[in-house]
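User: Design a sequence. Structure:
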């Protein structure tokens, strides 16, 4: 069963990868404007997925300080990984996480449990347009490399943020997120409150997806980075972004 089979199949618009170099016209409806959080599932029966799980387990046992999946899976094998397993939370000793040239669509919130993480390399991961808010829990993270032109709301092209609170996004969040991004409390009934927030992570400004349990937790969010949408928001084409910077 795929990640979408729980009740979302057939309800999302067809996903179309945008060209990050296109200029975005305010108010224009793009094929990727409505549903663009990459709900594609990961094939967990593939040999590459099994190799990745084993590599993470070995890195945990050996207390490695560097973890580079591409070195283990090979280039072609690494490209078949679309999501990382939750077990990356066990990489407590890893200081450098090298995910260059990946086909990753998102990072799991469990990345916030990598308490020793200092360097995160996501360069040339062009399908990765946002990060989980939980990444801010990595207090030692000071060095990042990311293809910024692929990020939502980046200064160069200002691609729009997907409109949150879409039924499919909420179903996806309830399947993959079990704790509030802000306070860490378990979700117990009620709706998940989703917002975007652009803040500095390491050496780059990144758009973060927040899955909060309450309005109180939304009010606890930090201020947005200067030069970006000035506060947390739910995305969509109606959100006015600052002018493009060349």
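Assistant: Done.
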């Amino acid at each position: 069963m795929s990640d979408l089979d729980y009740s979302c199949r057939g309800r999302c618009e067809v996903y179309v990868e945008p060209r990050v170099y296109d200029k975005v016209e305010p108010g224009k409806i793009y094929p990727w404007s409505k549903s663009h959080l990459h709900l594609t599932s990961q094939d967990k029966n593939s040999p590459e997925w099994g190799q990745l799980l084993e590599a993470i387990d070995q890195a945990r046992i050996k207390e490695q300080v560097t973890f580079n999946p591409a070195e283990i899976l090979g280039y072609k094998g690494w490209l078949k990984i679309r999501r990382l397993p939750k077990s990356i939370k066990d990489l407590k000793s890893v200081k450098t996480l090298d995910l260059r040239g990946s086909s990753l669509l998102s990072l799991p919130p469990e990345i916030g449990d990598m308490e020793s993480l200092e360097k995160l390399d996501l360069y040339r991961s062009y399908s990765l347009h946002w990060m989980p808010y939980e990444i801010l829990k990595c207090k030692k993270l000071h060095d990042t490399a990311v293809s910024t032109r692929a990020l939502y709301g980046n200064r160069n092209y200002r691609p729009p943020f997907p409109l949150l609170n879409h039924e499919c996004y909420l179903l996806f969040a309830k399947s993959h997120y079990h704790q509030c991004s802000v306070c860490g409390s378990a979700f117990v009934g009620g709706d998940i409150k989703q917002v975007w927030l652009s803040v500095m992570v390491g050496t780059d400004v990144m758009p973060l997806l927040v899955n909060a349990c309450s309005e109180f937790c939304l009010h606890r969010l930090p201020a947005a980075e200067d030069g970006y949408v000035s506060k947390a928001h739910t995305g969509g084409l109606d959100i006015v972004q600052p002018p493009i910077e060349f």
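The CA atoms of residues 77 and 111 lie 22 Å apart. The two ends are 45 Å apart (CA to CA).
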